[in-house]
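FORM 7B: Structural annotation worksheet

SECTION A. Query
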Amino acid sequence: MTNPAPMVQLLLTGDELMSGDTVDSNSALIARELAVLGLVPARRITLGDDPQALRTEIQDLCTRGDVLLINGGLGPTIDDLTAEVLAQVAEVPLAEHPEALEHLDAWCERRGLALNDANRKQALLPEGCEILPNPVGSAVGFCLTVSDCLVLCTPGVPGELRAMLNPIKERLQERFGIRVQRHVLRLQTFGVGESTAQQLVLDDKSDWPSEVALSFRAGAPQLEIKLTVDVEAHLPLRHQCRQRLETLFGDHIVGEGDRKLAAAVIDLARDQGKTITTAESCTGGLIAQMLTQIPGSSDVFPGGIVSYANEVKASLLSVSDTTLTEHGAVSEATVREMVQGALKATGADLGVAVSGVAGPGGGSADKPVGTVWLAWGDSDTVETVCLHWPLERVLFQTMVAAAGLDVLRRRLLGIPEQSFYLRQRRIS
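SECTION B. Predicted structure
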């Protein structure tokens, strides 16, 4: 017999969350990870760094649920209050935890730092707590049982939280006898919007098995499609649904899990022994940034050139004065010369260039805000497309940068067709 699922509650702490200086992405990450265990948080509370408010809320949450996950407040500063307040609620003293201190010593040694009193504060934890290892940051997590509620405390830094969630899930499984109930397959796509994706599925005449839940998570620049089954016996049905999605979405599927366009481009280039470069104007180096965020990008990316001003387009990318004068910076002729200039400057095999009007000003009747030219190819063959993507400036840059990566991906895969987005937005 399966044990009833424990009631899970979340408490996120920090003045920066209340003021809007920091956007809460951690609660979404926690919820996604807990969903794999079939757990859905019953309550989510966000509080500032107020000791009394935290004390009152923790006391109340511990009497309501089986699990309380507290995120934030484990750092070295005076406004990091989680350990102190939880010790008060549990009616135990703070004590220097030897395992936490050992972790701090090792963390400082790896960075050539001396352990100071501020950092040492992170080893002062409620007496009797158990450590939750943090493989990334200086502050360990810890757990403690209060009023029969398992309280799990984690740092607020997203990368640190992410690195700690698998051991936390294992602890929950052990404590509450949870067997993995959900099997989630996430497919990353680019080039098709949420409504179009849903319509493709609706137009498919095949029966969709009720045992496989289909959901979409829109994002910029990628759209995630999820296939979920609750029991292992239904995995073959999920595989059939995946095959159907591959038929429906085809080359718009970038990969599984958290697969990013940049990673797909880098892996393809590496497998083919090719190098790639970028020549960017309106995206301000965002394509290069997306590439260099991927470990191992130096294998295939020798560098790119951000040529925002016409003078830089001329001096670094050899775009001719005649081209700039007669056609302007946002033109097919200019991006053609930009990509050829980047290929020559870096010695790369394949390149992409973008130049557009990001707005909110600077547009004209023939080149309205949202107009962008892309060029991509090698020293022999360059392809171009002009798009109109009238979006807010940062979102425009994000989508154009992703489009630049996608045309490289398709070129490396030998796919002549452009994505739905490019066909939809194409004006030349």
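SECTION C. Observations
The longest strand covers residues 183-189. The chain has three domains: 8-176, 183-256, 261-425.

SECTION D. Sign-off
Analyst initials: ____
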